[in-house]
Amino acid sequence: MTRVMAERYQEHPALAMWHVDNELGCHVPHDYSDHAATAFRRWLEARYESIEVLNEAWGTAFWSQRYDSFEEILPPRAAPTYANPTQQLDFARFSSDELLTHYRALREVLREVTPHVPATTNFMLSSATKWMDYFSWAEDVDVVANDHYLIAADPRSQIELAFAADLSRGVAGGDPWIVMEHSTSAVNWQPRNRTRDAGRCCATPSRTSPAGPTG
Question: Which of 37, 65, 116, 205 has the most neighbouring CB atoms within 10 Å?
Answer without folding.
Answer: 37
